[in-house]
Amino acid sequence: MILSDYEIMTLLRAGELRIEPFDSMIVRENGLDLRLGREYCVFKNTGRILDPRSPGSAEEYYDCRVAGEEGIVIPPGSHVLLHTLEYIGLPSYLAGLVNLRSTWARTGIYVPATVVDAGFEGQLTIEVIGSSFPVRLYPQDRFLHLVLVRLGVPTMKPYKGSYLGQRGVRLPKFFSNASGFGFSR
Length: 185
Hints:
Blueprint: H1 5-14, E1 18-20, E2 27-28, E3 31-43, E4 62-66, E5 72-74, E6 79-89, E7 94-100, H2 102-105, E8 114-116, E9 121-129, E10 135-137, E11 142-150
Antiparallel strand pairs: 1-6, 2-3, 3-4, 3-6, 3-11, 5-10, 6-9, 7-8, 7-11
C-alpha cells in the first residue's frame, strides 16, 4: 500500500519515520519530494577497467566536488552521483521507491529505478544520467519523489548494510579504503 500525505504526517509525528531537516512542503499527496544536497561526483571517461576485487583509487573513476551557488551542470549523456539534502530513517515496515520529479524528467535527464530498503537510514545517493543537452540543477531544489510503501508485515531483516547512516555522496563500497573528499565516510 502506498502511503498518503496523511499517513506520512502521522508517522512523522509518532517518530516512526525520520526526515532531517524536515520541511512540510516536501510532503506531497502520495510521497515526499526530496531536495538536492551539495556534493556530487561525475563519472570520468577512462579506459581503465574497474575491477571490484582490485579497484584502485576512486579518484581514477570519479571527479567529486561541492556545488556552489552556480549549481551542478549535468553534461549531455554523462553519469553523475548526487545526494539528497534530507536524511531519512525508515521503519522495518516501510520501503521507498525513488522517482525523478516529472518536471525534471521532462528535461530528458534520467534516474535509474532505485529502491530504499525497509530499515534504511541516511541520505540517499542517486545516479543521474544526462539529457541530450546540459541541464543545471541547484542544491535544495525539490528533485526526487520518494513513494513510501507499507510492507504486508515488517521485514525480519531491516537494512544493516554498509551504506547505513551515509551522508553526502557515497561511492561503491569497494572503494571504502580510499581517502579524500567524497571517497570515505
